[in-house]
Amino acid sequence: MTPPALPRSARLALALQRTLALAVSPLTTLAVAGLLRFWLRLRVEDREAARRTWRAIWRAREGPLLVCANHLTMIDSALIAWALAPPLWYVRHFSALPWNVPERTHFAATFTQRVLAYLFKCLPIVRGGSRDEVADTLARFAFLLSRGEAGLIFPEGGRSRTGRVEVENAAWGVGRIVKSVPGCRVLCVYLRGERQQSYSGVPARGDRLFVSLSTLEPKSDHAGLRGSRDVARQIAARLAEMEREHFAKHGEPAAPAEVRP
Amino acid sequence: MTHSEIFDRVVKILTPYVKNQEALASVSEKTHILDELKVNSARLVDVVLEFEDAFDIEIADEDVDSVETVGNAVELIEAKLG
Question: Which of A83, A145, A233, B62 is least buried, going by the fewest C-beta atoms within 10 A?
Answer without folding.
Answer: B62
